[in-house]
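STRUCTURE:
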């Protein structure tokens, strides 16, 4: 069946709308309290994925000194409620056969549960309870805040966090994207003193109108909705209205310098401030294609630096859809420091060639097709489907976001890539990473 689906998409004319990129019907309902519920029947007898999207991330951390709370609640939501005190909830979920997790990004927090359809009614009861009635005292709050600090220190042992902090710090001065999802370390250290603020943060963003429940798999829709309405219906509240600071233009080019003293390979990166991904603009689709066009495994840059000259161990794009203007980049892990100048020149030359109008239309067509194929090929389980829907819906803000996004991808032309590069991939928007390795302490 998968091969049939893939064949349908072959050799689409440029700009032609493909058949529905998402091959299953989505039923969407909105409860009276504003909660959106998306359901997708999927052939997985006896199994279901139950994902909850909260449209809150580090983007929403607008008060100075209070970063890291979106990620913090990813932890606290597993602590317990009045009905299911700490430990009781996890024990029940595990006994029923469910596995659960969560993740936080700049723009969304997603809670994931997968397991048996037979216990779905109980799961809905437990999930609705923690979103309606999360309860924690100050001492458990302090304990979890200490755990978050420990997580930060663990991540800080990896160059990736320090690189992200440096690049964001060079690219942003006002917008919350200037800090990572973990938050500024000084704010994390102060987090144990922010108990009352944490309760405000929860009430501000964990509201029915700011959440989407996504159910994928084997379920009876009428029974499911009856249970959801009964359990989530009493949940009240409205998401806060806060002003997200607008980032002024970058006075580039800027440089983010990081000196590392532990053994690792040097790295370089080329980043540009770029627009938000929205359904009202093709910018997100253009950047998705552009990422593969400039630094994917079929790109001349990859072939030259990785396969032929073997100057870099790893090369790839750095891009993720964001609700607000963020960064688009190219990143390389050098085999030695002596290759830095040549690799930087090659990456800049690739961008310059596109700005000048050089587009390989055949390769562009192949990339568009591959992106569509890749989407379908990842749909092997209810969890795969739920994750794709959760990300697209959470960031882009609409239940039909995944389908509309794929329609936009199919319409990306070489002319669009060039126009985007000319407008956004320019020196004034550029941040260059200089990650060097030294035995001497900085």
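SEQUENCE:
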């Amino acid at each position: 069946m998968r091969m049939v689906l893939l064949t349908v998409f072959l050799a689409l004319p440029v700009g032609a709308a493909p058949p529905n990129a998402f091959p299953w019907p989505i039923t969407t309902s909105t409860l009276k309290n504003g909660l959106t519920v998306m359901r997708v029947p999927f052939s997985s007898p006896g199994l279901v994925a139950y994902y909850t999207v909260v449209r809150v991330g580090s983007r929403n951390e607008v008060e100075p000194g209070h970063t890291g709370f979106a990620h913090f609640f990813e932890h606290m939501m597993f602590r317990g409620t009045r009905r299911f005190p700490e430990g009781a909830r996890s024990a029940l979920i595990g006994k029923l056969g469910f596995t659960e997790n969560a993740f936080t990004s700049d723009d969304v927090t997603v809670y994931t549960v997968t397991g048996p359809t037979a216990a779905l009614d109980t799961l809905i009861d437990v999930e609705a309870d923690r979103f309606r009635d999360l309860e924690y005292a100050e001492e458990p709050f302090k304990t979890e805040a200490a755990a978050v600090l420990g997580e930060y220190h663990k991540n800080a042992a990896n160059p990736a966090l320090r690189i992200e902090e440096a690049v964001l710090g060079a690219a942003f001065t006002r917008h919350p994207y200037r800090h990572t999802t973990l938050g500024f370390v000084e704010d994390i250290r102060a987090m144990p003193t922010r108990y009352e603020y944490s309760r405000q943060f929860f009430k501000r963003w964990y509201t029915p109108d700011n959440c989407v429940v996504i159910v994928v798999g084997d379920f009876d829709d009428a029974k499911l909705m009856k249970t959801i309405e009964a359990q989530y219906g009493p949940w009240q509240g409205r998401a806060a209205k806060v002003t997200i600071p607008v980032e002024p233009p970058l006075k580039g080019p800027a440089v983010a310098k990081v000196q590392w003293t532990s053994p690792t390979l040097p790295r370089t990166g080329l980043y540009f401030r770029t627009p938000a991904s929205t359904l009202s603009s093709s910018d997100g689709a253009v950047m998705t294609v552009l990422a593969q066009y400039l630094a994917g495994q079929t790109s001349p840059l990859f072939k030259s630096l990785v396969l032929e000259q073997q100057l870099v161990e790893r090369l790839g794009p750095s891009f993720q859809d964001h609700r607000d203007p963020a960064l688009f980049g190219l990143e390389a892990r050098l085999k030695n420091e002596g290759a830095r100048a040549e690799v930087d020149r090659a990456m800049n030359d690739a961008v310059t060639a596109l700005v000048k109008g050089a587009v390989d239309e055949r390769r562009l067509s192949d990339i568009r097709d591959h992106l569509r194929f890749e989407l379908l090929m990842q749909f092997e389980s209810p969890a795969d489907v739920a994750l794709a829907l959760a990300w697209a819906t959470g960031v882009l803000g609409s239940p039909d976001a995944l389908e509309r996004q794929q329609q936009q991808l199919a319409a990306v032309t070489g002319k669009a890539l060039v126009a985007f590069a000319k407008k956004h991939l320019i020196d004034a928007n550029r941040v260059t990473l200089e990650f060097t390795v030294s035995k001497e302490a900085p």
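REMARK: Residues 1-17 have pLDDT under 50 and may be disordered.
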